[in-house]
Design goal:
Distance between the termini: 26 Å
Strand content: 25-35%
Number of helices: 2
Strand order of the largest sheet: 1-2-3
Oligomer: single chain
Structural class: alpha+beta
Number of strands: 3
Shape: elongated
Largest sheet: 3 strands, antiparallel
């Protein structure tokens, strides 16, 4: 289900070519007079199914579109881990 969120749903910004990426976006209420928080939690697997990275990004008071932006940032973090295997 989490892979489907990244391939077909709200987590598309976290996609990485050649890797299986799964995740979940979400919104959490802040306060009545403040924008909602946006978040994304996800993982990346290599072509053999070996775990490469897991990440959670939370953007406080990001407002509308915050979870999509969190997915984009998570994708960038996972790409950086893939690019530098010595950092794992």
């Amino acid at each position: 289900m989490m892979v489907s969120v990244v391939e077909n749903g709200t987590g598309r910004n976290a996609q990485i070519n050649g890797y299986t990426v799964g995740g979940k976006t979400g919104t959490a209420q802040s306060a009545p007079d403040r924008p909602d928080h946006g978040w994304f939690i996800g993982f990346a697997l290599d072509k053999n199914g070996t775990p490469i990275s897991a990440v959670c990004v939370e953007l406080e008071q990001a407002g509308s579109g915050g979870s999509a932006e969190a997915a984009k940032i998570a994708g960038r973090i996972m790409r950086a881990v893939i690019a530098d295997p010595g950092s794992r």
